[in-house]
Amino acid sequence: MKELLYNPQGLRGVIQQAPEGRFKLYYAYTEDKDLIIIVDARHVKSKLKLTVVTVFPQPSKRRTKVKEYGGEE
Questions:
Q1: CA of 69: how far to CAs of 6, 23, 27, 36, 45, in Å?
Q2: What are the distances in angstroms from CA 16 to CA 22, 31, 45?
Q3: pTM (two decimals)
Q4: Cα–Cα distance between 1 and 52 in angstroms, integer?
Q5: Label partner for 3 (CA 20 to 30 A): which of 12, 13, 35, 46?
Q6: How confident is residue 67, by pLDDT bands cut at 50, 70 and 90?
């Protein structure tokens, strides 16, 4: 999982969630599924600390209203 978080090439989208500082990250997993990683982000002594809340697969066709990185606008 650490490899995914540090590899932005697989990142398909980011959505900010409630509460503040929580994000839903969409990563390419298989051809028809995305891997969803929910993280809490906070600053600790000038560093960004990410805490993984949950991880689950999701059909990629559910990825709606998510702007893909590297794609055309």
A1: 15, 16, 11, 16, 30
A2: 6, 25, 23
A3: 0.73
A4: 10
A5: 46
A6: low
